[in-house]
Amino acid sequence: MPSPENGNWVLSPGRLHKELERTGFCQDTVDRLMEAARRALSLPDVAAKLEQIRSETLGGMRTKPHIPDHPLLPALAIVAAFPQARALHQARGIPDAVTNATLCDLGRSMEAYHAEHGIWGFDNIGWLRHHLTGGLFELGRLQYQPGTMGLPYRVYRSHRDAHLVALAVDQVSCSAEGFPQQGAGGFTTTWTADSHQVQGHFVCPESGKISPQSKDLALSDYELIADPTSHLLFVHIPKGPALGRADCDESFQKAALFFDRHFPERDWQGYGCISWLLDPELRQCLPAHSNILGFASRFLPLAVPNATGNQILERVLGVGVDPSTFQPRNSLQRAVVDHLRAGGCFRTTGGFIPRQDTPGAPPGH
Question: Domain limits at 46?
Answer without folding.
Answer: 7-135
